[in-house]
Design a protein that fits this description.
CATH architecture of the largest domain: 3-Layer(aba) Sandwich
Shape: globular
Helix content: 40-55%
Largest sheet: 7 strands, mixed
CATH class of the largest domain: Alpha Beta
Distance between the termini: 23 Å
Number of strands: 12
CATH superfamily of the largest domain: Type I PLP-dependent aspartate aminotransferase-like (Major domain)
Strand content: 15-25%
Bound molecules: pyridoxal-5'-phosphate
């Protein structure tokens, strides 16, 4: 029996067509800047999203870290959501490796950071304080699309305060498909943007950092120092190009399946569906039953993300079809019957 793995959209297997594209990719040594497929991917995303340059990196974590290192010096700080990936789930890399201080701010329910709070967090130019340098946002955040008007106000506010802006757009294309807003418009106010190819887009590896010449040139140095300079990485970039050609529009299917999963779970009295946005469903079940639920689902061939958050997280993706959703709902129904 094939496992129905709803833990994350990172668990996808490369499709046969993606593997064929990878096998056929022309490659070169990318540390010398000689991999044509990597260049093609970097240039394609840069022009699609309206930036001068792109930088192909092994992971979203490294992409965010490189952006922070490119924007901030030792003793600078960045404003970031308390529940943002780049603050909470990246090992404190900016502080550990960059001597950059995070200034976390509580996320509102819609993922935004209150501009009034951010305003209070900007430190005066005084030797007591770290130098506030950057605002970092995330879109989608826990599957939610940030309100478009908020993104405009937040990036304008940052500019007015002399701050740079970075967007963790790991799931930018989910935001674009769900909102109907072209990805280019979603990132218009940002100095740098990180996009993951290995989440809903279904590539095995890789993220791209987009920005202006100066940030990407600096980023290229940091990437090498962090061990992210890869050689014939066109093999991997080819998977990203294939994903951009074939797996963007279909994200709508993931979103529809997440909605159907949420509807099925809502019918179970013991399950509280807290949120369903884009390809993510968050539910709450009685805490004392979590361990038992995990075991029962695993036996039924269903995996969910249990234990990281107070909620159970279920994520749809390329390898989840309608039958898998039905099977997952049935497994929950049986457990709570
Ligand atoms: C997954 C993720 C990252 C990090 O990507 P990795 O490739 O796992 O390092 C960064 N930000 C967000 C919002 C993510 O979901």
């Amino acid at each position: 029996m094939k496992t129905i793995d709803l833990r994350s959209d990172t668990v996808t297997q490369p499709t046969a067509a993606m593997r064929a594209a990878m096998a056929a990719a022309p490659v070169g040594d990318d540390v010398y800047g000689e991999d044509p497929t990597v260049r093609k991917l970097e240039q394609r995303l840069a022009s699609e999203l309206g930036f001068e340059h792109g930088l192909f990196v092994p992971s979203g974590t490294q992409s965010n870290l490189i952006a922070l290192l490119a924007h901030c010096q030792r003793g600078d700080e960045f404003l970031v959501g308390m529940e943002a990936h780049s603050y909470k789930y990246e090992g404190g890399g900016a502080a550990v490796l960059g001597s950059i201080q995070p200034q976390p701010v509580s996320n509102e329910d819609d993922g935004s950071l209150s501009l009034a709070t951010l305003e209070k967090m900007v430190k005066p130019d005084d030797a007591h304080f770290a130098r506030t340098r950057l605002l970092a946002l995330e879109n989608t955040w826990q599957g939610r699309v940030l309100p478009a008007d908020y993104v405009i106000r937040a990036t304008q506010w940052a500019r007015s305060r002399g701050l740079s802006t970075h967007l963790d757009g790991a799931r930018l294309f989910n935001a674009a498909i769900a909102s109907g807003v072209p990805p280019r418009d979603l990132v218009a106010g940002f100095d740098t943007v990180s996009v993951c190819l290995s989440k809903g887009l279904g590539a095995p590896v890789g993220s791209v950092l987009l920005g202006a010449q100066a940030q990407i040139a600096s980023g290229r140095r940091w990437r090498k120092m962090l061990g992210g300079g890869m050689r014939q990485s066109g093999i991997l970039a080819a998977a990203g190009l294939h994903a951009l050609d074939n797996h963007v529009e279909r994200l709508a299917d993931d979103h529809a399946r997440a909605a159907r999963l949420a509807a099925g779970l809502r019918a179970i009295p013991a399950v509280e569906v807290q949120a369903c946005h884009t390809n993510m469903v968050f539910i709450r079940v009685p805490t004392e039953r979590l361990r038992e639920l995990d075991r029962s689902l695993t036996e039924a061939g269903v995996r969910a993300s249990i234990g990281y958050l107070p909620s159970v997280r279920l994520v749809t993706h390329l390898d989840i079809d309608d039958a898998a959703i039905d099977h997952a709902i049935a497994a929950f129904v049986r457990f709570f019957a």
